Amino acid sequence: MKNGRPKKVILSARIKSPHETKGFGYHLCKAIKRTVLNVIIVFFLFAVLYYTDCFWMVESPITLTPIDISRVKDPVMAKEGGKDSSRENYELMFVDHLYQGMVSGPESFVFYGDNIITTCADGKVVMLGPNNETRVLYSRCDKAGNETECGRPLGIELEANRTVFFLDSYHGLFRLDLDTLKQAKLFPLDQTSLEALQIRFLNSLLVDPDFIYFSYSSAVYHREQFAESFIDAECSGGVVKLNRKSLEYTILVSGLCFPNGIEGDVKDSGYFILSEITTARVLRVKKEDGVTSVFVDGLPGYPDNIRTDGKGYWIGFSASRLNLVSEVLYDRPFVRLLLKYLLRYGIVNPVNLAPPYGLVGYVDSSGTLTKLLHDPTGHGAQKVSEAAPHKGHLYIGSYHPRFRWISRYKLKE
Questions:
Q1: What is the mean pLDDT of the chain?
Q2: How far apart are CA 70 and CA 319, in angstroms?
Q3: Cα–Cα distance, 172 to 194 (Å, whole number)
Q4: Taking the model in full, what pTM does it have?
């Protein structure tokens, strides 16, 4: 206080930093630059690892047979840089989309009159009518929820145009009477869990008069961990043989690398053929004792479900081998090991890195690949789980939940 008056205090305005004076556009631009820089760094590191892989002394867990499409008419070999203007090679681009938005990841099909029954990624088994009617035959949850709890139906078969058999990957083998809609669980019995049996990831099945044969893709990983099972290249899968009367079972085959689709041998009813995804091949298995041999090898994709037309087999390929991702996984084992840990910690899923390629093949009764149908765009079909022949058409599904239709392709005479 001076001369009895209060002293004036002058408050100076706070000077803003240059950072605070910038607008939204400035900060957005910086964020984009940071993201682009991070992406460049990641790609640079992968490039270094890719071209120096041999110095890391890591052995590949799986050795694939080179692709053999020598007997395929007008083959497409994108990986080889070949060019072909024939529209026939890309016929999967020209399909009908059925039941658009009514299904999610239709995995496998059976045909009941004019209806299609399919297993879906949302945990349901649904019947689809000719006028787009939908009827839910199996569902464990009213709303979409955890896959372990709500289940994931995969393989399905129809017997005597009345009884449906299907596998829920987490919960077992079921029988459903289409007349009464009564449902019975055939495996595992009582409260025994698949965990206790050291069987996980139930997948595909074949129904015979006396026995049911079904694959389990892994004894280590669950279905929702399928990418990790594939990247890990572990071979703990097998085939179960279940007696339909006593419901007693045996492990017919074990030590398989991601076994999947099963179909009866069209030449000899004492055998069935079985796809093995990780090795990109199909096996031939004797039903009596499980003796196994290679039926077809060197496939251009990773085989999923198999369906017969009575003369040969239509195979859906879950992914193509004709891309860089596949090459990295098998020819660059250190990169594969790195991707395994990135996947384990949820950083990246290598399966999603693969392009949405659609690929279906036909193998004759002697085990020769004779036809391939492609969709490099993924608009007609992609990540194919099954191609089921029915009344002059192929009905094509996908294991991926974003695939929300059934593709129908008209077969040529």
A1: 86
A2: 20
A3: 8
A4: 0.84
